[in-house]
Amino acid sequence: MNDKSHLNFVSYAESFLDKHGDNYLGVGWTKRPEDADARYKVMLDVVHPGTHGRVELLDFGCGASHLYEYMLRNGINNISYSGLDISEKFLSLSKGKFPLIKYHHLDILEGEDALPDFDYILMNGIFTSKCDLSFDEMLAYFQKLVLKVFNKARIGIAFNVMSKQVDWERDDLFHLPFDVLASFLTQNLSRHFVIRHDYRLYEYTTYVYKQVDFQ
């Protein structure tokens, strides 16, 4: 994988928007819109229920800001939302809908100094597809990006990948074994992580915390 291979994900994501428009299909999800909502709920559950006050959250790879729309529909008002994307097309769409929201246009792999810290950073759908990358190339990209993002989180991060506990695997999706993930997290990020495999989709979501004292 060369240093710019991840930019192929931008054109891949934008192709769904061009084809389907501003809806769940337009950000690359399939099946049913309620499946996208299930992901948003699980992602937001990274915010510990014992947390007091308003928290700052970054939607990393925010796309069309559908996570924020989910928050508005469900009256989630204890979270200060910001978005980040490297796609100018998606950011233009999001800014048009929500001009008062702070959006960041940068590639964190090129330099994270311009990005402030957040309490929580969510990466929904960033690692589910690997396009034409090999598993090893995608794993290297995943590890590099997660390390960068974790450094910008004060409390924790959440991300989803495809599960290995399926009837069959698609070659273009990133099916990450639990043991490979756990070893990487323990050795490089934190021992404080939760793997969520308790919702109906063929994926799992992981929360990684810097510490577990939420009192």
Count of strand segments:
7
- Computed structural class: alpha/beta
Question: Which second-level CATH architecture applies?
Answer: 3-Layer(aba) Sandwich
Task: Quickly count the helices.
Answer: 6
Strand order of the largest sheet: 3-2-1-4-5-7-6
CATH superfamily: Vaccinia Virus protein VP39
Summed over residues and divided by their number, the pLDDT gives a mean of 88
Q: List the uncertain runs.
A: none
Largest sheet: 7 strands, mixed
Taking all Cα atoms into account, the compactness measure Rg is 16 Å
User: What is the end-to-end distance?
Assistant: 43 Å
CATH fold topology: Rossmann fold
Explain what the structure shows.
Helix content is 33%, strand content 20%. It is of the alpha/beta class and 215 residues long. It has a single domain, classed as Vaccinia Virus protein VP39 (Rossmann fold). It has a 7-stranded mixed beta sheet, covered by helices on one side. β6 (193-196) and β7 (203-209) form a beta hairpin.
